Amino acid sequence: MESIGIKRIGIIGVGEIGRAVVTGLCDGTEESPEVFLSPRGARTAAELAARYEEVEICADNQEVVDRSEVVIIAVRAKDRHDALAGLRVDGDKTVINVMAGVANDDLRRTLASDAALVRAIPLPSVRERRSVTVTFPSHPVADALFERLGGAQPVADEEAFNVCSALTGTLTTHYSYLATLTTWAVGHGIAPEDAERYVRGLFQGVGRALSDESRSLNQLAADHETPNGNNERIRTTWFGPANSQALHQALDGLLTDLR
To answer: Per the CB 3.0–4.6 Å rule, which of 53, 73, 126, 146 could disulfide with 133?
Structure first.
């Protein structure tokens, strides 16, 4: 945090993402910023304040804003008007909006502030400082903050931001896919704990392969196949053109709703 000079960060709405951001900033680091949490999400806030000496719970959201240089707004979108009503945000603050589906123009109307507003899509894996976070618009403070948490990827406009937001909607589908593989194995006589351990091991290896950015995703797929082999058979018989098109259509529908 020293490289960007941020010493005080506030988080309004301490849910899973808030917890992940605090953990990424404070866990195992030599110098952490002071972190001020709203009382919203009291159990999680209390847990974080007990774990990290840099973390403090504020009396209300206004105190979070007043004591912070950077304010992360992480309340649920449907709760934003109640949570932010009457909040005074000075123009010298940087506000990071991580609310899904809430554009910066919408947030600016709610806050009635000239503060810099940046949208971001941090994922729970920022807790391990291993997740790339999409931001819009590019802002030196926000981008440097997320570089600290695994990497920042600024995009050119809000449409590109919405496309990336739609992609995050596929995460639990991936987990459910793995769970389905496990269920199939159990149905063929493998003990549940053994099936899950093996499936986890298979796809942890895939995760490590993804860190090799010298190979495209298509190249990685090709490198894991042999002609007429098992991988090619499942890919071509199950994840064929119709399945691929159905996924495109589902993402298109989500993107429409995010605009």
So the answer is: 146
What span, in angstroms and rounded, lies between the C-alpha atoms of 12 and 74? 6
CA separation for the pair 147, 152 (Å, rounded): 5
pTM of the model: 0.84
The two structure tokens encoding residue 245: 């098109």
Residue 118 parent element (H or E): strand 116-121
Kindly report the number of other CB atoms within 10 A of residue 192's CB atom. 11
Distance CA 40, CA 57 (A): 10
DSSP 79: G
Q: Which two tokens stand for residue 243?
A: 């399945």
Under 8 Å between Cβ of 9 and 149: no
Please provide residue 15's backbone torsions phi and psi, each rounded to the nearest 5 degrees: -105, -145
Report the distance separating Cα 65 and Cα 86, nearest Å: 12
pLDDT, tens only, 149-203: 999 999 999 999 999 999 999 999 999 999 999 999 999 999 999 999 999 999 9
Sort strands 116-121 and 133-136 into parallel, antiparallel or unpaired.
antiparallel
